[in-house]
Amino acid sequence: MSLLKYESQIREPLVDGDKDYHQVTEDICRPIEIKPGKLWFIGFGIAVCLLLFGVYSVYREVTYGTGQWNLNKTVGWGWDITNFVWWIGIGHAGTLISAILLLFRQGWRTGVNRAAEAMTIFAVICAAQFPLFHMGRVWLAFFVFPYPNTRGVLWPNFSSPLLWDVFAVSTYFTVSLLFWYTGLLPDLATVRDRARTKFRKMFYGLTSFGWTGSTKHWQRHESLSLVLAGISTPLVLSVHTIVSFDFATSVIPGWHTTIFPPYFVAGAIFSGFAMVQSLLIITRKVLHLEDYITVGHIEAMNKVIVLTGSIVGIAYLTELFISWYGQNPYENWAFFQNRANIFSPYGWAYYGMMFCNVVSPQLFWSRKLRRNIAFTFFMSVLINVGMWFERFVIIVTSIYRDYLPSSWSTYYSPSIWEIGFYLGTFGLFFTCFFLFAKYFPVIAIAEIKAILKTSGEDYKKKMTDTEKMDAEKFYIEEVEHAH
Amino acid sequence: MEVWRGFNMIKKFVVGCFDDEKVLFPAIKNVRRAGYKIHDVYTPFPMHGLDHAIGIRETSLHTAGFIFGITGTATALTGMGWIFTKDWPLNIGGKPHFPLPAFIPITFELTVLFASLGMVWTFCYLCQMMPGVKKHHFHPRATDDLFVLVIECSAKTNESEVAEFLQRNGAMEVNVQEAETGWWFGRYDKEQKLYRYEEVGY
């Protein structure tokens, strides 16, 4: 029985303040039920403007072709694929938090999982735009799916990593969406049962699927969550593994690296957690959810960041070492001339990446800095800049100088429409996130209630008192009676 | 008197609301000992052990997940195998027509996709949930902070006796309700009417 579960007093409470179940509902439903503030409208407005700029950039690309971008003879993958990998990486934190941390029984996931999962879904939507429009003729995008067709029954190549990517990303999106939405059902029912206006009653009535909170339904819901977590765990790891296959199975020096799968997965978790930090630090402040997303939560995520950041750092160094040790002249050139040489055209990107991803997160070994919110926010942005550089370095520095110097490309820098497309996905991401924060509970209400009496601050205090009393009682009854 | 709407029957229930799980569990034990039929307990969050306390069996939803999963595996392998060996054998760099290692990623993804889609569909089917479905809610705070224990009455049940019994066992609020047991299509912004009362007009 959950009510008898005991949690050590050494552990920090996961819910601050003196709360009961009703107070939890009130706190988390409040942002949905009141009119959004000025900040929300300003943020939403900026996001929509960015989105519109992105739509226009994409319109240019669709109408005039990929020539609108500054891709050239050797740099066929530039900002577009960099941004794809970057967004997909960010999309890894949500399912990691909800699936892997569920299996590891990490109680702190309850405060952040809902928003992180939502972020995952929006990030994957943003990521999918890039390969889609990179195809050029986007209206034929459905050709990537295998289906009986009239083109002489032309099937896609199932041995191609690019097709694996299609399956991986679409499966990941679907499963994340299902996981997120089934988790939302009970909370949407909570909002529905509190709804006063006609529209709310109808909207949350439709979206909550008629959830009642029946014991049998909860039992099935628990089983469903557990199995989905179980199968999402290898799924999360598989997605970025397969994205890394896009590069690793090729023969391009700099891409042809067996270390890529674990290195990409660690990098994805690293950047994903950084994005969760950026979003949640703002969300908790704006929606007044400091009691639920505590400094303890932020610290826990910073620990994941320092771990994955260090894994990424080791991967960078391993790559360098192997390219030296392997003595392949092309590999050597790719790593020591095109990347690690600070005077090469893209040397700045390599050292920017090294600084943001490897050096700076090491500051999180300090507990004081891990628990400093402003510093964490700054670091989370820095890390995502660094992770963008990582993908840029991997993609562009490996291909901008082909084997023959006569095929070396001119310096690749993006066109305004390439940048516009990237900014547009920011717009899409934040538009979705603002709408989510306005219309959906950003914290898993039911899950918070389930841990409230073991991990709530007030309950933990009471537990300490009970412990003391019990110890005294035990002493009187057992020890004194014995004498 | 039995009134039916489709598969739904209107029944009488005694509803007891508890605000503390420490009171709820002993109350359930006493209710079962007294021989009353527990229709269901509605809670705002999953309570471990409650399913055993009210005596419902383990769910076999995970078995459905497994079956859907291996369906996905089989679909992927047979599909890709048939396409590459029978329907349109392509020579890709002289590589085998059934390269199992190269098929693993898609096989894995389809296994996960089928398992999760299938399980969520089964979950919704078993719980009879989908957009537009409406069910009777015994207490609006069952999704907020109350644990709602619902006892089903038979023709012989003395409701006031059951109500008193629940009150003695710590229920903070007790009432008797007539309700349809199943689900119907309905909107939450419209008041629910029992079928019986709609019928009166005819």
Largest sheet of chain B: 5 strands, antiparallel
Helix content of chain A: over 70%
| Oligomeric grouping of the chains | heterodimer
The largest chain-to-chain contact, stated as pair and per-chain residue counts, equals:
A-B, 73 and 72 residues
Rg of chain A, rounded, reads 25 Å
- Report the mean per-residue pLDDT of chain A as an integer: 90
Shape of chain B: elongated
How many separate helices of chain A? 17
Measured by DSSP, the beta-strand proportion of chain B falls in 15-25%
What is the SS-derived class of chain B?
Answer: alpha+beta
Low-confidence segments of chain B: none
The global form of chain A is: globular
Order of helices and strands of chain A: HHHHHHHHHHHHHHHHH
Low-pLDDT windows of residues of chain A = none
The description of the largest β-sheet of chain A is: none
User: What structural category do the secondary elements of chain A indicate?
Assistant: mainly alpha
